[in-house]
Amino acid sequence: xxxxxxxxxxxxxxxxxxxxxxxxxxxxxxxxxxxxxxxxxxxxxxxxxxxxxxxxxxxxxxxxxxxxxxxxxxxxxxxxxxxxxxxxxxxxxxxxxxxxxxxxxxxxxxxxxxxxxxxxxx
Amino acid sequence: xxxxxxxxxxxxxxxxxxxxxxxxxxxxxxxxxxxxxxxxxxxxxxxxxxxxxxxxxxxxxxxxxxxxxxxxxxxxxxxxxxxxxxxxxxxxxxxxxxxxxxxxxxxxxxxxxxxxxxxxxxxxxxxxxxxxxxxxxxxxxxxxxxxxxxxxxxxxxx
Lengths: 122, 158
Description:
The complex is a heterodimer.
Chain A: H1 2-6, H2 9-35, H3 39-42, H4 46-69, H5 76-104
Chain B: H1 5-19, H2 23-42, H3 56-79, E1 89-94, H4 100-112, E2 116-122, E3 127-132, H5 138-156
């Protein structure tokens, strides 16, 4: 890691901040995934890791490699785009499976398929 | 020759980002993009019709800001989960747009936002079932989905 010592101070601080924020969000998401009580609450927690969790690490990587190689490195942005665009596919699959199971089992507090109580505030 | 010009441009851009910006990769990337667009055309997908496409950067900025704000809120909820109860709730929202692209973008936005989850879309009555982790003000959420995002999406995709 000889490049790391050549990094100017401003870049080192920016990389450290983004890396720590991203990692902290992913960790908090994992803790939430473990601790929240119901399925529908737990499903929110990993989104921390797939939004600004991956975003922070991505920005840190872009700054680090752009500064050390002397030319802009932008391909990390593809990771961010693909993670963001593909998350809803698995997410929706899990959510709808859970909804279906809860409706079949008639679990309390889960909305029915055909609802008459829609508030229309157009 | 180019059935999907925007898709082709983005494919070339992606190829160059992955392989480096050289003339050789520009040529290979362009060939890959052209063939990929022909393959795409043979699937005969529904074509998006862009209206006010210049509003896309505004949408991107709004989403990045809202997602960052929601990250902070959800992190606070998780870290304080011992001391303070949050208020998880289901929310059914009546949408106006039937456009598939608007709905897809709205689903991605609401799923990426940690505080909200897009659970189920019903095409019969055009409603969407959301789950919100900490529902403090129902009217505020309805306003955010309908006025902040749906209006903008209806201007972008016509």
